[in-house]
Specification:
Layout lengths: L14 E2 L4 H11 L3 E6 L2 E7 H15 L6 H27 L3 H6 L1
Length: 107
Amino acid sequence: MVKVQSLMTSEPAWAPADATLDEAILMMDEQRVRHLPVVEGRTLVGVVSGVFLGWVVVGSVADSVDLSLNWGRVGLIVLAGVVISVLASLWPAVHAARLEPVEAMRK
């Protein structure tokens, strides 16, 4: 049976507890790891993941950007999409109705 010790990384990348977000992301990128142990002194105090750090970055950017929606504009865009879809689906039928029966069979 294979033991975990034979598969583990003996000298994993880690971050000090006082590392900045930028430093942690840079460490993960340089070491090509998706999870980073966080150490204070010689004690493991936690683990951060790349996905979590990504959400933190996205959240901090989203807090600084106005994400409010103009519902009137959204409604207009949806209505335009529906109208275009209906017209696009009816066009072949309208075109075929203008043809003589023999011509319709040829096309």
